Amino acid sequence: MSDKLSNGDEVGVEPIKGEGWMHYRFHGGPQVRVNRVVLLGTGTFIGLQKGAEELIGKQSDAVFYDAGIKSGWEGWYALHTELKEHGDALIRKMFSFTGENGFGWFRIKDLNIESEAKRGSITVSHSFIAHTYGKAEKPVCHFIAGFIAGFISAAWGVEVACDEISCSAVRGDLCVFGWEAV
What we know:
alpha+beta
């Protein structure tokens, strides 16, 4: 799977088999070994999230947010190592990469980056979490919010917090995430 960015760069992943592992790299680039990659169905992911909610209650939100932060840092490292870019340019590529033409986490509807104010927002449809989770009383995309916080913190070099402002699992068909430096 690949995508051409507006500047013509090709971004995508291709599996690399060997050593009993499956790694990913950007087309034409060297293999990036950040972490072992496993394929996990959305139903399995939501099963883990709902199971954690049943076992530990509201603290599960923090567990998935924290896991997202760590994943965001790993994602930043992989992209930064491969593309040698920083800041807003790398953030835009990351959102393209995690969008429907990359890993398929969501479809981007609007992206707003205010780098001088160290804040921004992204509006998405088809969040893999909200879409699979079903109806909920509160936002459920904690992992994605954490990923955004981790990636942008690394890209900007400042600690960033991200909140899911609205979630399609609660109402509507869009999820909105807002972030700012803390």
